[in-house]
Amino acid sequence: MVPLLCGVIVGAYILIYYNFIRGKQCKSDASLKGKTVIVTGANIGIGRMTALDMARRGARVILACRVKETGEAAAYDIRNLSGNNQVLFMKLDLASLDSVRSFCKAFLSAEPRLDILINNAGYHGAGKTEEGYNKVFGVNHLGHFLLTCLLLDRLKQSTPSRIVVLASYAHNWGNIDFNKISSPAESISDTLQSYSDSKLCNILFARELANRLQGTGVTCYSVHPGIVYTSIGRNMPSWIKALVITFGWLFLRTSRDGAQTSIYCAVQEGIEMYSGRYFDNCQVREVQPQARDDAVAKKLWEASERMTGLAS
Ligand SMILES: NC(=O)c1ccc[n+]([C@@H]2O[C@H](COP(=O)([O-])OP(=O)(O)OC[C@H]3O[C@@H](n4cnc5c(N)ncnc54)[C@H](OP(=O)(O)O)[C@@H]3O)[C@@H](O)[C@H]2O)c1
Ligand SMILES: *[C@@H]1O[C@H](CO)[C@@H](O)[C@H](O)[C@H]1NC(C)=O
């Protein structure tokens, strides 16, 4: 009786694992020799596994990270694991628009090309950016908005080139209220709302960017990586963290598997016609009306230009 029950449980888990947890793998074997890739937040989690894959394909990979020590350690590990020595750390703190500007200045003066930009870094928690904006909105959307705008000419000079924006299924709970989108959150439920809102911003940003990039040879895609066992919940209440530590390794996707849709959007041949769309499980997906509202996307772009000082 007991062995039978164990067999059924193990069998059920294997079925669930291969059908729901692991997710689809990117099958493209595209080489990235001679290409340059930036991955933000590449010291850990999904970004780290994405950067490792890009390095294994032969790309020159810039790990754009907040902390020098962990960024350099990741660059060392990725060089070692991939056997590719063209992997380097460059300092980028997305919670500071000055840091974004200095990163871009350093990158543009050192690197002649940019083929793939992966806006992967993400933050959930309290606090403000250096400019006083809601930190979740600032890191997840506004910092990446400025980063992308400042690097756009280099992407246009390196076509065909791509931009991948890490969004989330959580965008479904998001909404955009221009009166308070950038105001700091007060409570944990506010930070969760800000997170969903920022992920909706990511999807609308990719849509509007794709519209503006039509005909340039630069395409962009937003991505839901799956529910992945990473440290994105580090500022969650401790009972949630305890649950994730206890069961996460069983029921959540690994970072390696969570990186597959980002990798797919970065390298898969023939997806250019889907520029501006949202991908999940290495497939283009329909989104709810609020995530394809082009009027709001345009308004968000203009508001972001004002907040980053790009609009005069
Ligand atoms: N995990 C999931 O289930 C899931 C689901 C949907 C979407 N996503 C998205 O996937 C992306 C990657 O997240 P993850 O799950 O891999 O989380 P993670 O392991 O916590 O990695 C987050 C990365 O973002 C970086 N970051 C945070 N604040 C930053 C800042 N101010 N400047 C520069 N970098 C900063 C972190 O750097 P430090 O380590 O230095 O703080 C870290 O490298 C995020 O955009 C997240 O929203 C994740
Ligand atoms: C990676 O590191 C190990 C030891 O830490 C070393 O033996 C190996 O040669 C390194 N591989 C590369 C490609 O540098």
TrEMBL record:
Keyword Oxidoreductase attached: yes
Matching InterPro entries: NAD(P)-bd_dom_sf, SDR_fam
Transmembrane among keywords: no
Pfam families named in the record: adh_short (PF00106)
Recorded family membership: Belongs to the short-chain dehydrogenases/reductases (SDR) family.
Coiled-coil intervals: none
Signal sequence extent: none
Protein name: Uncharacterized protein
Keyword vocabulary terms for this entry: Oxidoreductase
SUPFAM superfamilies the record matches: NAD(P)-binding Rossmann-fold domains
UniProt superkingdom: Eukaryota
MF term (GO), any: oxidoreductase activity
Organism: Hymenochirus boettgeri
